[in-house]
Request: fold
Amino acid sequence: ACMNDLQPIDSRLGSITIALICVLFLISLRLFYLQIIWNTYYIERSEKNFLRIEAIPSQRGTIYDCHGNLIATNRPVAHLIWNGTGNRTLSQQQKKLLGHLEAITESSITSNAQLMQSIVSAEKRYQQILLAQDIPLQQLSQITEQYPDAPNIGISTHFERYYPYGPYASHVIGYLSRQVDSGQMGLEKICNDLLKGQEGSVLKTINSTGRN
Reply:
């Protein structure tokens, strides 16, 4: 009788053992599939999570007249940016910093309620927001000298087309389209392929919040 009672138990143990072996086999098969067969795919996906390729626009070529006078070139433009650092509200130190930036740039930052609300929102979400456009070199020097390591301060720079003589001979020199940055008339259009240059690129490392 005892032997007969043990047989169902042995049968169940055997079934459980077989089930465990099948499960372990399936897990091993899945791991092999992910780590060996799809290894390259997931490595590329993981790199894309923290690496970003950003285009670097080339500076447009300069134009001289027959006497060597510069009639079309590029000038640097710097914008003051607020980099959000994840605080839920602005600290007293950050408010004081904004007040100093307002005084240096002679603009309305702290006195602009809508802008301040946008700054608070950008601060929470690790986003960037424009504080002042086209900062003069003197103001830019003050900011970089006084706040060289401030995490909330960022400077965005680019170049824009500049004509030293203004509208003079504009029918000959031509102009650029703001949408596609290509010549639309005159020398700017005729020599567009020579002047536009070739874009470069830079590979940047991005953290989990989307910041460099």
